Structures are given as structure tokens and as C-alpha cells.
Amino acid sequence: MFWFLQDKYLQKVHFSRHAIPLPESMQIDDLEGAKRAGEIFGYPLMKRLAYDGCRNAVAHSEEELSSAVAALGGFDRGLYVEKWAPFVKV
Questions:
Q1: How confident is the model at residue 59 (pLDDT cuts 50, 70, 90)?
Q2: Which of 10, 29, 45, 51 is deepest in the core (most CB within 10 A)?
């Protein structure tokens, strides 16, 4: 029943199928995929570790993509990118 709890990307897929509003996102497997996400979503980008969702890294430009990926431990652990969503604390 709760098969998606530890995989944040699978959560996003599940929630989007049920019309729960979320920032646009895409799974990335390599640096070219990260660059493609930057072209699609613009910068800054929020990179997230898919498993458990504990760590995040922000890339403000294409030049920062490699360091953001490295900060999250590389592509082997599963990464996805979210379009930047500005939040306003109320």
C-alpha cells in the first residue's frame, strides 16, 4: 500500500496521477539529462535525491550542475530535478 514512501520521485508520479499540484519534475540519469532539465525548466533548479528525499542541492546555472550532482552522491543513487518553486511564508 505504501510502496512509494521512500522514493520521492515515485511519490511525485503517484501524486500527479491523482491531480495533486506539485512543481514540475523529471528524473535524471546523467549530466546531459540535468542540462536538458535546465533548458526545460530554467534556473535555479532543485536537485533531489530520490531515495528518502533527505538531501537537496540547488543549481543556479548550468555551470553548477556537476557540483550539485556531486553534493548528492552522483547519479547511482537516483536523482530527479524540480522546477524552482518560490514559497512565501505566511
A1: very high
A2: 45
Q: Please state the pTM of the whole predicted model.
A: 0.73
Ordered by start, the domain boundaries in the chain are: 24-83
The C-alpha atoms of residue 42 and residue 25 are separated, in whole angstroms, by: 12
Q: pLDDT tens-digit profile of 34-55?
A: 999 999 999 998 876 665 556 7
Q: What pLDDT is recorded for position 39?
A: 96
Rounded Cα gap, residues 60 and 57, in angstroms = 10
Cell for 18?
491523482
Candidates 3.30.1490.20, 3.40.50.720, 3.10.50.40, 3.40.50.1100; correct CATH number of 24-83? 3.30.1490.20
Task: Name all contacts of 4-7 with Cβ < 8 Å and 24+ positions apart.
Answer: 6/51, 6/52, 7/50, 7/51, 7/78
